[in-house]
Amino acid sequence: MQTLRGSQRRWQLAEATAEAAVLAEAVRAPAIVGHLLWQRGVRDVDTAQQFVDPKLTDLHDPADLPGVGRAAARLVTAVRERQPIVIYGDYDVDGVTATSILYHTLRAADADAPVQRYIPHRVDEGYGISTEAIAKLADRGAAVIVSVDCGITATEPAHVAKQRGVDLIITDHHEPDATLPDAFAIAHPRVVDPDDSARRYPFGELSGAGVAYKLAWQFARTWCGSERVSAVFRELLVDLLALAALGTVADVVPLVGENRVIAHHGLGRIKHTKFDGLNALIDASKLRGEQIDAYHVGFVLGPRLNACGRMGHAEQAVRLLTDATAEEGRRTAEFLNKQNDDRRAVERAIFSEATDRVRKSGYDEPSVRAIVLDDPGWHAGVIGIVCSRLVERFGRPTVLLNTANDEAHGSARSIDGFDIHEAFNACGEHLLSHGGHAMAAGCRLAHEQIGAFRDALVEYAHEHISEEQLTAVLGVDAEARLTDLSRDAVEQIERLAPFGRDNPRPVLLLRGLSVAHPPRTMGQRNNHLQLMLEGDGATMRCVAWNRGEWAERLRPGTEMDLAAHVKLNHWNGRTNVELEACDWRVAEGAAT
């Protein structure tokens, strides 16, 4: 693997391999597609064909998921006997869509079934199942509580549920502790089947919405008493793929295996959804004329659904995806637009302040390899997003703490190769609680422990992060020339979509390009850049998002090597190939 130094990141150029040609031939695509498949771990013809043409029949049998059969049977009994059921969700997109999936499913069995939803308030209650909430729901008469996208570490709440005679069903996908909660049933793709310790689910990376979808599928089969479900459930399960895809893409789980199947088919269903609220959200987001893909979920629809939980209460987002009429959906979708605008303004303000504090505190020095900042005024619902932006800017794992209440609540994001969940484990003596996974986590701690926690995390990061890791890596899949990037070739590359974690949008290296015209900044704050680039007798438009500052350095005639995505731009009835710049460097042999 060749390493090149870009203007901002280290480029790691993947090596070409002769075996990739066999893959390209198998899927009837240009050689570059075979190379891209090889870089994604595809090593045989059957897997290649499955990758470019994922089918619903590729999904694993839901009965293979440990705990799902027991959970489905209990829910069927509860619906038939009209026992009160509460779906206990999470406030992010994955939790909101998972809640909506189960709600639609139970109501499809019996429109009058006593099914309620409970979404904790992000700021007031925090993440996960709380003992207080379980007790409150038990007081209200809940017979069954089924969690979605949370609960796998809820040992004490499970104990309270059992004491109160409530059957707690946990469906989750987050990292479990060594000791599991004593629940009625646990459906989790990485938990060992309690009845068969040798049994493992074939795919451990489902999202919370993916697990909920598997439970919905198994519920339908149990309700119908057959593996072949009724027409009503069959149609509903197809419609619910849209919600499962929203949760899967928004939660940034690996878009491979079952997640790829769910995302591929679910994204295709979004514009054809029968859910009035989702249609309203599409219209309010001005996506009716678009071919909705993972980008639109990650950067348009997802943030609007998330904004509700970040700035207010996520129950509104659940109602939008479940009970909302067309008119209510329109009002709620417009409200979410406003909430998202407010969220972006708050996010920009916190990011600007945090960036200044990083530089003033020396957190950007090579000797300091983690960032920990706290402030009582930083909105707890937004700091996770700001963490991600700070990681991108400074290349360090980042923890931001809101200290407005009796306890500090924090969000963390990490860099490749540094497990922030393990780091929190190592610093656990300073924390009241924590959870998450390698790249993102959350925590609670006492105010007086903030200094000690900061010191411990920075020390741990210094021991586990090399100086080289502080410069972010950009994986470059293949080399290409502008003349290679015909519309047909790019359409073949797009067959690898949906793109996301573990299947990123391909990055191509184009050497020896030159800037043809003066760069032009774009956007309300002139923070984006448009270039016209020449090479091999061809000219192509290139945009560089959030790189307006490059304009001063990329004058006409500048020779460069470019690392970029290639995509089809559909505008005013025309389709053109264009580049999206990731990074650039002075061209080899160019004058400096």
Written overview of the protein:
The longest helix has 36 residues, at 326-361. Helix 5 packs parallel to helix 8, helix 9 (231-250) crosses helix 12 (294-311) and helix 11 (276-284) crosses helix 14 (326-361). With 592 residues, this protein is an alpha/beta fold. It has a five-stranded parallel sheet with strand order 4-3-5-6-7, with helices on both faces. A five-stranded mixed sheet has the order 8-9-10-12-11, with helices on both faces. A five-stranded mixed β-barrel has the order 15-17-18-20-19. It is built from 18 helices and 20 strands. The protein folds into three domains: 2-53 and 473-586, OB fold (Dihydrolipoamide Acetyltransferase, E2P) (Beta Barrel), CATH 2.40.50.460; 58-337, inorganic pyrophosphatase (n-terminal core); 362-470, Diaminopimelate Epimerase, Chain A, domain 1, CATH 3.10.310. The mean pLDDT is 93. It has helices at residues 20-26, 31-39, 45-52, 68-80, 93-109, 131-139, 155-163, 208-224, 231-250, 257-270, 276-284, 294-311, 315-320, 326-361, 383-394, 420-426, 450-464, 487-493; strands at 2-5, 10-13, 85-88, 115-118, 144-148, 167-171, 185-187, 371-375, 398-402, 407-413, 433-436, 440-446, 473-476, 478-479, 508-515, 520-522, 528-535, 538-544, 559-571, 574-586. A hairpin with a 2-residue loop joins strand 19 (559-571) and strand 20 (574-586).
